[in-house]
Amino acid sequence: MTPNELKALAVSQFQILFIEDPAINALLYQALGAWQDKAGCLRKITLGADVAEVDTPEDFLDIAIVLDAEGQYHEADASAETISITEQTGSVKPYTVHYFVNLRGMDPATGQLPNDAIGKLLDYLVTLIGIANAAQQRQFAGVIGTSQDGIPDETDLRNRKDALELDMEDSQAIIPMATVY
Q1: Which of 71, 101, 154, 170 makes the best surface tag, with the fewest CB within 10 Å?
Q2: Are 56 and 69 contained in the same domain?
């Protein structure tokens, strides 16, 4: 699922939206940033049998860990163009680079969100939109003098947001174990 598809699914949860698309886009990137900071997303690249360098992926944020075929830790240098592994005596190829994904920099039309994050990201984005939408609803109701009874309570929405953030922290990406010698 792409970020734009996630946004469309979140927006479909509301019968009436009082906020415009630029604000919803900002909330989408806020949700992606929260997931990136609190849970993280790991992806891996396995290099060829005789290779110690690979092109840096588009969604690259930072190296989590580099392992050889036997699980031995290796240092690596990352640039905008390449990731270079420092070979050691006794290294067994192929190398595997585990890296953190830059969700904030992801192309909203083509980037692929991690499957295990979609449900929680959707809940979080719906909650963020709900907070902004309820604030606009209250303001609109105050201007035209109608009842605010059906508008979701801001405290409940903020508590839901805080609970979802704690849940994100419980879903942190796990960096694989390594042997160091």
Answers
A1: 170
A2: yes
What is the token pair recorded at 139? 């303001």
Do you know the residue count of the chain?
181
113 part of a folded domain:
yes
Domain span at 36: 3-40+107-170
ω before 22 within 30° of 0 (cis)? no
Contact predicate 45/96, CB 8 Å: yes
Do 72 and 96 lie in one domain? The reply is yes
Please, where are the H alpha helices in 108-172? 118-144, 154-170
**Count of domains observed in the chain:** 2
Residues sharing a CB contact under 8 Å with residue 125, sequence separation 6 or more, in sequence order: 6, 7, 10, 27, 28, 31
Contact 152, 130 (CB under 8 A): yes
Do the domain assignments include residue 181? no
Does some domain include residue 180? no
Is residue 147 in some structural domain?
A: yes
Q: How would you write the pLDDT of the chain (181 residues) with one tens digit per residue?
A: 999 999 999 999 999 899 999 999 999 999 999 999 999 999 999 999 889 999 999 999 999 999 999 999 999 999 999 999 999 888 999 999 999 999 999 999 999 999 999 999 999 999 999 999 998 888 777 677 676 677 788 899 999 999 999 999 999 888 898 888 7
- In terms of domains, do 69 and 155 share one? no
